[in-house]
């Protein structure tokens, strides 16, 4: 399986505690220095800047913070972003699970190609993804569909960039699902649909939710693929990340931080949710 | 006849798993399908269950033509080697599954699940998840789950194969007793001849996709129909031109007509028995098992010259000239 | 029996269901990904290869491409060094805060590129940043300059190498390393002769992923670079610029080139993955 996604997606490590090594040593002088440099670099690059976003947002005060988020244009952008991300996530839950099912359970000519093509949205630069969609759903569409500057464009772009998440989280679980469990259900009188609903689906729920969480997180933070496609019309097709950019361009870094802080907190929540799901899964064994 | 399999053939690519197999499995009995792995016994069981379809031939269950019925319409209970537990459901929910599919009333389901958990001694684990049970407990749960729907036949595919030796032995005895209690027609697949001999009413020996012999355990042991059955059901050794069991050889310290002369090369004491390796005049090595008492009485030890003759009236097979 | 269960009659869905699902998913992926992606290549090649290449030869465009290559090399090298070090520390050593560090390392993958850009600007811009003015006084401009772009790129691709190496390091354990040490190898020799060959494919895989991600970063780079044509404009930024300036042909040509690079990465990954599994 060619799976850029499984790695490129922000899925948490299967078992965070697994990073604790068997027979790990304590630090010596050389390794302490390496650790020090690594942590310093990580702090300067990632931790301090992210904290700066939160600090800058907090600088507005609760009232100022709320004022930014509730301003009509920003509120509309956040609403649109959440709305479209939810819709796309629902689509991914259905289509992603179906795709994973076909990839694992079926055999046909071209399946391998399908498997690779699913990773294309992850590998493509987001701006190129926008142009890619533009060529089929833009003004020069061979299908005669022009979604540019509409909400459908936002939906389309998000569906494109989030396509692999559910597929790549469900696929490995489906592969390890024991076939005899389904056979047991059948011998107990369950039809295929009942077996799917009562036996297979419950085993997939953690993986599907993990994929859905990733898909949602990616959806609300998407920027690049929307630039050429959605037109960024205020109040209509403008999403949250575009708002952040507009605030920055207008020199309002603090207001940009307010919206960015919301995006950041949602991203962190997703990480936490994933961790909880993974742990519950590990307990079921 | 509870299950009737007639002329069933099954291929997987070039591999012939079953070659024109016909067998009748009588009602109320516990039958073992015995044979080496890859011999086709599991395939036969899965064809009876409808989990596999035969290329040709027919399967009849309780008088109903079942060859083309999907598994869920056959009313068979199936127990898998690796338990096939529904991991997200509690033990009680696992057992209730088949009843809920059949839309039985809540009270009935509850009562029947309670009875079955009693039967398999898992009542105190009703609310646990399968992952919290031991292998043996999981397999008992699987058995209760299969019995819950009152199947016309119970099929068990290497049911003790994944368990360690001790649990295996316990469950084996327990299955025998359970069968005496419940009397459901049962077929189980095993590659362990001891398991088959100990538990089954009847044994079907399958090898290379064909049935070698069908019979009661004693019949099979005492009068094997072929070299294969004889070899598979217990240890054998060659004496002159025949295949005999090591404990079915008389050891004499004097010659008699027809006896084969030889010298004890090695002796190994294992508990109450003594295993002798005898090098015979015709340059064969014959394994002989005698009791400790015989060994003492005849003063057998390495280097002693002995004469060997098959005990009269025991199973033996002429070895075809190669 | 194993050879039997893989192709059982029951295991496969009935034919109509199978065909229905196949048509549904192939149609979906075709309309959403395959066809549009193909069209980009078609559009890029429509005027002919010569035109396409001359579009890419435009000084501003070629500067953007060269900058992207430079940035990508820097970002991959930094992430490789950091990734190797951190992976070894996480797997082979015990230290307080390890679990927290391990969790934090995954954060960059979930953060919006726009937030990444803003975060770096807040700390490193020359006017009112936390460290920016001080750095600028020392002669280092970060934001609106190459170091800022490199940092943004490193940020977004940071966990990719680590996520590939850590599981492999865990799996191979440290028996071989201990054996090497018992035979007299020092830490340096042990790493080059034992550890690195063991995680070779994971490293290659992580590098390819980081490469693909670095080549394509857009949002974060857009904010920190200032997007100055011929100076701090990268290839992805140039795609936006040229498309919006009605040089659509150039935009398609650049996109096709970037898409091609991404596909090559995909293919490399597709080739490596089974190799890794076989071990």
From TrEMBL, chain A:
Its main location: membrane. It is found in: Membrane. The keyword Transmembrane applies. The chain crosses the membrane at residues 39-66, 86-104, 116-138, 150-170, 199-220, 256-277. Residues 1-23 are annotated as: Disordered. It is a multi-pass membrane protein. SUPFAM superfamilies: MetI-like. Keywords: Membrane, Sulfate transport, Transmembrane, Transmembrane helix, Transport. GO terms for molecular function: ABC-type sulfate transporter activity. The complex is composed of two ATP-binding proteins (CysA), two transmembrane proteins (CysT and CysW) and a solute-binding protein (CysP). Belongs to the binding-protein-dependent transport system permease family. CysTW subfamily. NCBIfam families: 3a0106s02, permease_CysT. This is Sulfate transport system permease protein CysT. It comes from Nocardioides mangrovicus. The gene is cysT.
Automatic annotation (TrEMBL), chain B:
GO terms for cellular component: ATP-binding cassette (ABC) transporter complex. Pfam families: ABC_tran, TOBE. GO terms for molecular function: ABC-type quaternary ammonium compound transporting activity; ABC-type sulfate transporter activity; ATP binding; ATP hydrolysis activity. The keyword Lyase does not apply. SUPFAM superfamilies: MOP-like, P-loop containing nucleoside triphosphate hydrolases. Gene3D superfamilies: P-loop containing nucleotide triphosphate hydrolases (3.40.50.300). The keyword Transport applies. It is an enzyme of class 7 (translocase). CDD domains: ABC_CysA_sulfate_importer. Residues 3-233 form the ABC transporter domain. Its EC number is 7.6.2.9. Keywords: ATP-binding, Nucleotide-binding, Sulfate transport, Translocase, Transport. This is ABC-type quaternary amine transporter. It comes from Nocardioides mangrovicus.
């Amino acid at each position: 399986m060619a799976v850029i996604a499984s790695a490129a997606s922000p899925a948490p490590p299967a078992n965070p505690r697994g990073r604790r090594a068997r027979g790990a040593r304590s630090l010596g002088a050389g390794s302490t220095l390496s650790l020090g440099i690594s942590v310093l670099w990580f702090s300067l690059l990632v931790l301090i800047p992210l904290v700066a976003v939160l600090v800058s947002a907090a600088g507005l005060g609760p009232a100022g913070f709320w004022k930014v988020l509730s301003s009509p244009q920003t509120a509309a952008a956040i609403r649109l972003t959440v709305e479209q991300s939810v819709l796309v996530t629902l689509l991914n839950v259905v289509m992603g699970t179906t795709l994973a099912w076909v990839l694992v359970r079926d055999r046909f000519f071209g399946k391998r190609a399908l498997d690779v093509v699913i990773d294309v949205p992850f590998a493509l630069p987001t701006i190129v993804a926008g142009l890619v969609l533009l060529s089929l759903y833009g003004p020069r569409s061979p299908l005669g569909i022009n979604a540019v500057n509409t909400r459908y464009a936002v939906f389309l772009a998000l569906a494109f960039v989030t396509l692999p998440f559910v597929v790549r989280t469900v696929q490995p679980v489906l592969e390890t699902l024991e076939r005899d469990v389904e056979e047991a259900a059948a011998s107990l009188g369950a039809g295929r649909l009942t077996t799917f609903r009562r036996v297979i689906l419950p085993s997939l729920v953690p993986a599907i939710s993990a994929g859905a969480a990733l898909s949602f997180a990616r959806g609300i933070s998407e920027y690049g693929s929307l630039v050429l496609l959605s037109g960024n019309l205020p109040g209509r097709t403008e999403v949250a990340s575009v708002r952040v950019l507009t605030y920055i361009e207008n020199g309002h870094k603090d207001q940009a931080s307010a919206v960015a802080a919301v995006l950041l907190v949602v991203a962190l929540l997703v990480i936490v949710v994933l961790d909880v799901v993974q742990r519950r899964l590990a307990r079921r064994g | 006849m509870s299950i009737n399999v007639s002329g069933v053939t099954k291929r997987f690519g070039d591999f012939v798993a079953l070659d024109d197999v016909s067998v009748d499995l009588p009602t109320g009995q516990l039958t073992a399908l015995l044979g080496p792995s890859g011999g086709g016994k599991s395939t036969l069981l899965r064809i009876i269950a409808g989990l596999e379809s035969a290329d040709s031939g027919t399967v009849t269950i309780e008088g109903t033509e079942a060859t083309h019925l999907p598994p869920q319409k056959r009313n068979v209970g199936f127990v898998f080697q690796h338990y096939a537990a529904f991991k997200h459901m509690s033990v009680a929910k696992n057992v209730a599954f088949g009843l809920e599919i059949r839309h039985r009333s809540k009270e009935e389901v509850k009562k029947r699940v309670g009875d079955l958990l009693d039967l398999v001694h898992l009542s105190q684990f009703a609310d646990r998840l399968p992952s919290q049970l031991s292998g043996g407990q999981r397999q008992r749960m699987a058995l209760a789950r299969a019995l819950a729907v009152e199947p016309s036949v119970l099929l068990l595919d290497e049911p003790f194969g994944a368990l360690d030796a001790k649990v295996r032995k316990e469950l084996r005895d327990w299955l025998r007793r359970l069968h005496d209690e419940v009397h459901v027609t049962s077929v189980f697949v095993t590659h362990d001849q001891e398991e088959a001999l100990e538990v089954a009413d009847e044994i079907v020996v399958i090898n290379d996709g064909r049935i070698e012999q069908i019979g009661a355990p004693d019949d099979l042991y005492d009068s094997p129909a072929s070299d294969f059955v004889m070899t598979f059901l217990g240890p054998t050794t060659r004496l002159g031109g025949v295949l005999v069991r090591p404990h079915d050889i008389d050891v004499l310290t004097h010659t008699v007509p027809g006896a084969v002369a030889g010298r004890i090369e090695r002796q190994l004491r294992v508990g109450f028995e003594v295993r002798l390796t005898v090098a015979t005049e015709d340059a064969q090595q014959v394994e002989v098992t005698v009791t400790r008492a015989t060994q003492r009485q005849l003063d057998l030890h390495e280097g002693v010259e002995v004469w060997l003759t098959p005990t009269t009236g025991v199973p033996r097979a002429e070895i075809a000239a190669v | 029996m194993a050879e039997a269960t893989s192709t059982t009659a029951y295991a496969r869905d009935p034919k109509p269901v199978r065909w229905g699902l196949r048509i549904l998913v192939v149609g979906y992926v075709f309309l959403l990904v395959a066809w549009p992606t193909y069209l980009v290549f078609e559009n890029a090649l429509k005027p002919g290869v010569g035109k396409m290449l001359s579009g890419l030869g435009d000084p501003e465009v070629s500067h953007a491409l060269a900058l992207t290559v430079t940035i990508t090399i820097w970002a991959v090298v930094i992430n490789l060094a950091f990734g190797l070090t951190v992976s070894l520390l996480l797997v082979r050593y015990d230290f307080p805060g390890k679990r927290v560090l391990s969790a934090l390392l995954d954060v960059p993958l979930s953060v919006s590129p726009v937030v990444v850009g803003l975060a770096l600007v807040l700390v490193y811009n020359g006017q009112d940043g936390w460290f920016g003015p001080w750095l600028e006084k020392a002669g280092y401009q970060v934001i609106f300059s190459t170091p800022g772009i490199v940092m943004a790129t490193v940020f977004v691709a940071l966990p990719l190498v680590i996520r590939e190496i850590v599981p492999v390091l865990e799996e191979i354990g440290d028996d071989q390393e201990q054996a090497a040490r018992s035979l007299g190898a020092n830490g340096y020799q042990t790493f080059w002769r034992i550890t690195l060959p063991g995680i070779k494919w994971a490293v290659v895989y992580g590098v390819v992923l980081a490469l693909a991600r670095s080549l394509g970063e857009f949002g974060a780079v857009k904010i920190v670079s200032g997007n100055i044509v011929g100076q701090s404009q990268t290839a992805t930024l140039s795609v936006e610029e040229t498309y919006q300036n009605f040089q659509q042909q150039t935009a398609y040509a650049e996109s096709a080139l970037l898409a091609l690079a991404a596909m090559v990465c995909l293919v490399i990954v597709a080739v490596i993955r089974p190799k890794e599994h076989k071990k």
